[in-house]
Amino acid sequence: MAGRFAPRSAPHAAVPHQVTTPAPAALTRDWTPPGPLDLRLVLGPLRRGPADPAFRMSADGSVRRASRTPAGPGTLHVVARDGRIEAAAWGPGAAWLLDQLPTLLGAADEPEAFTPRHRLLAATHHRRPGLRLLRTGLVMESLIPSVLEQKVTTDEAYRAWRLLVRKYGEPAPGPQEYGLYVMPDARTWSLIPSWEWHSAGVDSKRSATILRAVRVARRMEEAAAMELTEAMARLQAIPGIGPWTAAETLQRANGAPDAVTVGDIHLPGIVGHALAGNRNADDEEMLSLLAPYEGQRHRATRLIMLSGNTPPRHAPRMTRGDIARL
């Protein structure tokens, strides 16, 4: 029955660093979303580069992701078929992942609350009916890679995430051929030696921020159940976490439709170009242009990015080794 799941056999815990036992049978669930749903658009923001060890997109449009849930490590495999979502999950966190499946895929999102006030956004909103804002309910799994992305190139950030998760995480439960890894738990992050951060290309400012966050990981996770203003304040209470990092985290963990990213190098110019023909817009002008979408400003920026109406980049790309962005 849609919306129900049942075990085929008891899941086993993941075996750290080496898988020597056959994969257990999966828990399964089918769910019918309330409207169109594009898995790639919805879950794409969780992917940290093409070689993300915790996330895979297949050619058939299915998605596999490994998470550290409140119940333990889990692997989720999701595929859309004939308007229905079919999911399978493994590991101690399997039941939690399946319970959260509708929420993850935007069941609580309200795309109908968005009223386009620019022709570009109206056209993109119409062309992308399957866009819903995801909600993982997991703060640390989005906060840590967002800190790694502070003021460095995406390639550097993706490399750091890949190296650290593969070395200090654990092989994800489920089929061995998936090759996924679950990110380290808070204690393991706190024990990573300074030279390993350096080897992964992470400067002391970003590593110190992560260490401060993992020491209060439970307090950080509480932000997933908070309203946006309170959640932003909770995350920014950690030195080294500013509006950019908090917004990038809560867009994913909370599905926050108004968590607009400020402090980004490129986004103000993209929004300015799309809505006012000004590729040199700063944060202040971006927020002014997005004011008609208050409450839905993150969705508006997603639609702008999906419109393809972005300015060509003439400015030099960010160089390696830049100071971390707060």
From TrEMBL:
**Matches recorded under InterPro entries:** Alkylbase_DNA_Glycosylase/TA, DNA_glycosylase, HhH-GPD_domain
Example GO molecular function: alkylated DNA binding
Q: EC number(s) for this protein? A: 3.2.2.21
Recorded hits in Gene3D superfamilies, A to Z, give:
Hypothetical protein, domain 2 (1.10.340.30)
UniProt keyword list: DNA damage, DNA repair
Entries under SUPFAM superfamilies matching the protein:
DNA-glycosylase
Domain of life of the native organism: Bacteria
Cite a single GO BP annotation: DNA alkylation repair
The catalytic activity, as recorded, is: Hydrolysis of alkylated DNA, releasing 3-methyladenine, 3-methylguanine, 7-methylguanine and 7-methyladenine
One GO cellular component assignment for this chain's record is: cytoplasm
Top enzyme class: hydrolase
Q: Where is this region: Disordered?
A: 1-31
Per its UniProt record, what PANTHER family does this chain match?
Answer: DNA GLYCOSYLASE, DNA-3-METHYLADENINE GLYCOSYLASE
Spell out the protein name for this chain: DNA-3-methyladenine glycosylase II
Q: Which organism is it from?
A: Streptomyces brevispora
